[in-house]
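quick one before i forget lol
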Amino acid sequence: MKIFSFTDRGKVRPTNEDALWMNGELGLFLVADGIGSSGRGAEASQGVVRACREALKGTPRPEELLPTLIRKANAALYELAQEKGGSFGATAAILWIRGREARFTWVGDSRIYRLRRGQLERLTADHTRAEELSRSGAVPPAAAARKSALTRSLGQGPTIEFSQGGPIEVQQADLFMVATDGVTDVTPDTDLGDFLSKGPIGGSAAIRQAVLERGGPDNLTAVLVEVEAPDLERTLEAPQIATILKDAATRDAIKPSRVMPAAVLQPPPPEPGIGPFLKGILAGGARRMALEVVIVALFLGTAFMAPELLAMLGRRLEAVPPSWFLVAGLALYAALLKLRAG
């Protein structure tokens, strides 16, 4: 699988109350969006992740995996509220890719999408008042697209009503996205389809940039997963799941199996060229810039003073092919690029 993710505070919220967790070996991907203030939202979303990881240690049977995770997450937040008082709530969406099939579950308005051969499909339906009225025909679909109050969230009671989907067929090159509402509220599905067509890395960068350019009003978190051919033949059964979890617990071998902190997504490295080169010169320090100027001067001098240099050095060098000077100039340019990278 090709997996890429990001989580960002956005431009308005003072803290990041989203969390994500992923385990590439299990094919399990989760996002959670905390509800509340004064740090309660962040504590709630982190609580969802911790509860799901703890639940996996019990190695639930494959057919019970997702319901177990969502129920354990709800119980953990409800118990936290009973212990500390007040309310600890969160939305969550969990995707499990298992060979040639995928299953998913969700509570609230965190979403799961699949892009297949350029066609984007939303696999989840928001638990919001507007969307539920739209499905019943009481309001037009356009009204459901507007932000609306949640009708379900984790942590509001000892039991939870959640939604499930699947199993659905998984094909090679399918691209799944699990995301919080900070991404989807300001990014229409038409735009998401265009962004996801860039693949997991390019799509992640494009989505994050678009959300921030549109004001970044909420925390934004997403996990993008592209299925590759070998993944289709990999179906884990309960004993294999237990082995993976045991290894992860003893040596933390599965590096993606962590709550990801807020971070700035780094775009793919730029191709070498004159544009990045000139930008690098402008951004460099004084000492480095001085070295770059010297190298550029040598390069230009070599190019424009080749006849004079030949005359000074005598006839022995008149037989030197002009291409040698071009090679020398290119070597200097390569040295300068290496200097920028170092």
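fyi The domain at 2-251 is CATH 3.60.40.10 (Phosphatase 2c; domain 1).
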